[in-house]
Design a protein that fits this description.
The chain is mainly alpha-helical. The protein is built from 13 helices and three strands; from the N terminus they run H-H-H-H-H-H-H-E-E-E-H-H-H-H-H-H. Strands 1-2-3 form a three-stranded antiparallel β-sheet, with no helix packed on it. It starts with 8 loop residues before the first helix and ends with a helix.
């Protein structure tokens, strides 16, 4: 927390309790907590700058003016929508804990997000990417296993680097993934991922282990757990080798995993479970991607398009 002499003392002191509630009761992920804290500290600082001394002075018009300020600063609709969620949840907490006698967010609407279709790779681009690492070297074997897992399971990069050796069950053909809020899910592995992981674990990983982080599945040259930045750097390098023009991120492989499954007739509920989405509406975006790609094929190849 900031070391300040707060004007809105009730709001700032309650923020510590609120963040504790999110961390312990709702078990939100660390990154989500950081976002909530940052959004709410900015919000409270704005209210103090405007001269408000108690949280009960805040009404709907005050909050709307704050959102207009964010818009004037060039903040995206998605960022403002996140602020709406943070502020609404916070005021509900203040009312429930009797810090405030009202909830000024009751009739507050969340701005509609522009639905951007996620970028995906073609199957041939995925093949070129996975074939890029040098399979004769330990790091190449590691990277093939890493790419096979990212594309073969659709896991997030944070989930990938958080994997421990015991989470990989190659004989049974599945991997145990801990997603947002430490929610566990089981995702099956394809033949390519099983073979690549088996080769990495048996032939390459022992050369990387230096007893600094012996439980971690994916290790760097120093023998410590591979980082998010390290994973992004690996992808960027192989994307160049594979001749992939668009900027490649781990999330694009996640999008590609889901889109290719649905294009080949996978059940939406099954894809939802493998991705770890709590709401199926989040997964439905991939049906739009699939339809969009079908339309591109139609326009390109149909003589009367």
């Amino acid at each position: 927390m900031e070391t300040v002499d707060p004007i809105l003392k009730d709001a700032r002191f309650a923020l510590e309790d609120y963040l504790h509630f999110l961390r312990v009761e709702r078990q939100l992920a660390k990154n989500t907590l950081v976002s909530y804290q940052r959004d709410l500290l900015d919000y409270i600082a704005h209210l103090e700058k405007e001269g408000y001394e108690t949280i009960d002075q805040i009404d709907r018009s005050v909050i709307l003016l704050y959102f207009q300020k964010l818009k004037d600063l060039g903040k995206s609709t998605r960022t403002i929508s996140r602020h709406v969620s943070s502020i609404r949840s916070y005021h509900q907490f203040l009312l429930r804990e009797k810090v405030s006698s009202q909830d000024p967010t009751v009739h507050l609407e969340t701005p509609k997000l522009e639905q951007k279709l996620p970028r995906v790779l073609s199957v041939s681009e995925v093949d070129a990417l996975i074939n890029s690492p040098d399979s004769t070297k330990p790091l190449g074997k590691r990277d093939i296993a890493l790419l096979e897992l990212l594309y073969g399971t659709g896991m997030r990069v944070s989930e990938l680097i958080g994997l421990n050796r015991e989470d990989l069950h190659l004989t049974m053909g599945f991997v145990r993934i801990f997603g947002k809020g430490s929610k566990e899910r089981i995702v099956p592995l394809g033949t390519g991922a099983i073979k690549a992981c088996q080769r990495y674990v048996e032939e390459a990983r022992p050369a990387l282990v230096k007893n600094k982080d012996p439980e971690a599945l994916f290790l760097n040259m120093r023998g410590t757990r591979l980082t998010r930045q390290g994973c992004w750097k690996i992808l960027k390098g192989y994307a160049l080798e594979a001749g992939i023009q668009q900027e490649l991120t781990p999330h694009i492989l996640r999008h590609s995993f889901a889109t290719h499954l649905i294009e080949n007739g996978a059940d939406l509920r099954a894809v939802q479970e493998m991705l770890g989405h709590s709401d199926i509406s989040t997964t439905q975006i991939y049906t739009h991607v699939s339809r969009s790609r079908l339309k591109d094929v139609y326009v390109k190849y149909h003589p009367r398009a």
